[in-house]
Write a structure and sequence with these properties.
Blueprint (H helix, E strand, L loop, with lengths): L4 E9 L5 H9 L17 E7 L2 E7 L9 H16 L2 E7 L9 H6 L4 E7 L6 H14 L5 E4 L8 H11 L17 H16 L9 E9 L3 E10 L2 H8 L4 H18 L2 E10 L7 H8 L2
Parallel strand pairs: 1-3, 1-4, 4-5, 5-6, 8-9
Antiparallel strand pairs: 2-3, 7-8
The structure holds guanosine-5'-triphosphate and magnesium ion.
């Protein structure tokens, strides 16, 4: 019998490259929030992949983007932590975007690790362009073990990617018991579902300046009552979240409830309010508390 292999793959990359889309696809679960706006993910999020003689713990991370703001610094910290924790580092690149000189810093962070680069969103560009990009990158970063073109949206190249992981995974017992798919509390996932709907429905700076808190979940046998609120910085943002005659919060609430019901496999009553805290992004402790579990 083949020996069991188990280990951690940390998925890193610039914002909006498709890291969360990929972890959701591989783990076949809606583990992480996805939107078309950069900087959707704010935490390190774990998802477990189990097959025959393999268990892989995937870590999704916030997009790597330097900034002096507290929240962004906390986000970068968790990405850096994930690099330290990974047996394998998967750097995800958006095939449709140019590689910039400052991106070199990110490539250097994976030097000395078992690193694989996946070129994502290949459904959007020509094959010849992908090959050119791989040639260029493999010349410049010869320490990278392999380059795999993928489409996380259209499920292309994923089997090959898993095969590459298998090469470099250590021989080890299962790291997580069966039936456990994540290490985060249910409340965190529910807050992420609501945050995803905020990112999908709102524009400009508003999504970036909100957080979601799940205060309480009450199990009433046939229905779970969830008390939650969206934290905003100003009455102006509160108004935008509420929308005309409350239409926006209603939409966010309806879309969230649907996904939360699927996630919990149970009927849900979602009580969603808005609270103003004009300090939440200005004080380090608050930014940390509202963004971590
Ligand atoms: N066309 C195409 N779009 C993709 C692909 N993968 C992801 N996307 C889209 O890219 C956008 C960003 O995806 P996310 O998974 O949220 O990206 P991320 O890297 O997690 O972003 P951050 O959390 O902000 O760092 C979404 O609109 C996805 O639907 C792909 O393979 N092809
Ligand atoms: Mg993400």
């Amino acid at each position: 019998m083949q020996e069991f292999k188990s280990g951690t793959v940390s998925i890193i990359g610039k914002p909006n490259t498709g890291k969360s889309t990929l972890i959701n696809l591989i783990t076949d679960r809606r583990i992480s929030a996805v939107s078309d706006k950069p900087n959707t993910t704010r935490n390190k999020i774990l998802g477990v992949y189990n097959r025959d003689n393999t268990q892989i713990l995937f870590l999704d991370t916030p997009g790597f983007q330097k900034s002096k703001k507290f929240l962004n610094r906390i986000m970068i910290q968790s990405s850096m932590q994930a690099i330290g924790e990974g047996d394998i580092i998967l750097l995800l690149i958006d095939a449709t975007k140019k590689i910039l000189p400052e991106d070199d810093e990110l490539f250097r962070k994976i030097e000395g690790k078992n690193s694989i680069i996946a070129i994502n969103k290949i459904d959007l560009i020509k094959k010849s362009k992908i090959l050119n990009l791989i040639n260029k990158l493999s010349n410049e970063y010869s320490f990278v073990k392999s380059f795999v073109p993928i489409s996380a949206l259209e499920n292309q190249g994923i089997d090959l990617l898993i095969k590459e992981f298998m090469e470099y995974l250590p021989h080890s017992q299962k790291l997580m018991p069966d039936g456990i798919y994540t290490d985060q509390a249910e409340k965190f996932y529910i807050s992420e579902i609501i945050r995803e709907k905020i990112y999908i429905n709102l524009f400009k700076e508003v999504p970036y300046r909100t957080a979601v808190v799940i205060e309480e979940m009450i199990d009433k046998k046939k229905i779970i009552v969830i008390q939650s609120y969206i934290v905003v910085e100003s009455s102006q943002h509160k108004q935008i979240i509420l929308g005309k005659k409350g239409s926006m919060i209603k939409k966010i609430g309806l879309e969230s409830r649907k996904d939360i019901q699927d996630f919990l496999n149970c009927k849900v009553y979602l009580d969603l309010r808005v609270k103003i805290d004009n300090q939440w992004l200005k004080t380090k402790d608050k930014a940390f508390n509202y963004s971590s579990i």
